[in-house]
Amino acid sequence: MSATSSHRAAHPAVYFVLFAPFSALSGYLAIAAAYALAQAKVPAEAIAGLLAVTFMPHAAKFLWAPVVDLTLTRKTWYLIGCVGSAAGMFITGMTPYRLESIPFLTVVAVTAGIAASLLGMSVESLMAHNTPDEEKGRAAGWMQAGNMAGSSLGGGLALWMMEDLHVSAMLTSSLMAVLTLACAAALPLVREQRAETPAGGFSFATNARAAGRDLWEVACSRMGLLAILVCFLPIGAGGASNLWSVVAPDWHASAATVALVTGVVSGIVSAGGSLLGGFICDRMDRKWAYCLFGALQAVCALAMAAAPRTESSFVVFTTLYALTTGLCYTGYAAVVLEAIGKGAAATKYSLLASLANMPLSWMTLVAGYSQTHWGNGGMLQAEAAIGGAALLVFALASKLAQRRVGPATQPAGVA
């Protein structure tokens, strides 16, 4: 359902503001909290484990997606998610940064991650129902930019306040929580359209069967199979970026540099990479564009491992890495959108997006393990090797599918 012609749709920039809190907590954990934990001599493996669990609720969000669709209103669910995310950030700042706090912080991260998933789904639903078809691409671009900006700016700003301005973690997290809540001020700019409840009422079993049928329709097509494969492969997952604040001292990067580069700079560059990736994907085969982007990120990781350990190297390579991450995220989205076609596109995309968070989680664990056991260079080399192997698997699967099936079969429901 698109916005009616009698109601002028909100400018797509509103989704930048509404979606920013979705990744603000994960950014705070990955940059500000991770840096503080590293300074407290907490092992990188333990920090990576904490960061990895922040992706887990997003890998399982399809289980509670029907609740958002069929109960309350999308704006109500947004407020619930926003408050939960802000509370998670506040509690994280109240907790002492030491090894003994990791189990408690893990519980907070998972709980707040569930709240963030509710916020994300409500924004996606508002966008789908309130944006004219001719503006949905632009709206999605603004939303993705908000996602990356929320993560980079949220964590970078917090670290800058804590390390450069010497603001306490308690006050910093309180201010970040207030900024998170402030994003809800953009809600009145978006029109609410209530979801229609089925005649038989709400049923988890019915919705699960319907979701299963949608996914099966996608899986019956060559492009659909490749899209599902993409979700499980760690191509362009960007796991190392979650540990930049942990490994920064090896490159002699100051807290101010880490805050600036992984915050403001990475937010702007990754958002620009997303826009550039969309431009490229519209001008070449999207599958091979995605492979190209993943290869660029692997090369960037290898180059960073081989480069001199200086602050300037840290700035250059983390910035390039942010650019390739934006490219890869857009490449992934382009492949999946091409595969799911129309029909029940929202349901199918939600399912695939849930699956896609799995490699984000375990690649963060891999980065933490390899950094602890093989050092910072080993972490970057391991990520590049795994990414290269994933690219090879995807390329071979694509060639094999094309040889066996011939021209791509459109998934059921495509107009």
Structural write-up:
- InterPro entries: AmpG_permease/AT-1, MFS, MFS_trans_sf.
- It is a multi-pass membrane protein.
- This is MFS transporter.
- Helix content is 75%, strand content 0%.
- The chain has 415 residues and is mainly α.
- The protein has one domain (13-186, 203-405): Growth Hormone, Chain: A (Up-down Bundle), CATH 1.20.1250.
- The radius of gyration is 21 Å and the shape is globular.
- 52% of the residues are buried.
- Residues 1-6, 195-199, 342-346 and 406-415 have low confidence and may be disordered.
* CATH fold-level name: Growth Hormone, Chain: A
End-to-end C-alpha gap? 16 Å
Task: Determine the mean pLDDT.
Answer: 76
Query: Quick one: CATH superfamily?
Result: MFS general substrate transporter like domains
Instruction: Give the overall shape, derived from the CA principal axes.
Output: globular
* Helix count from the secondary structure assignment: 15
**Got a strand count?**
0
Our estimate of the beta-strand percent is under 5%
Entry keywords:
disordered N terminus; 415 residues; 15 helices; mainly alpha; globular; single chain
Short recap of the structure:
This protein is mostly helical. It is built from 15 helices and no strands.
Question: What is the fold's blueprint, element by element?
Answer:
Blueprint: H1 13-39, H2 44-53, H3 56-59, H4 65-70, H5 74-94, H6 102-130, H7 136-164, H8 169-182, H9 204-219, H10 222-232, H11 244-247, H12 255-281, H13 286-306, H14 311-340, H15 345-405
Helix pairs in contact: 1-2, 1-5, 1-6, 1-7, 2-6, 2-15, 5-6, 5-8, 7-8, 7-12, 9-15, 10-14, 10-15, 12-14, 13-14, 13-15
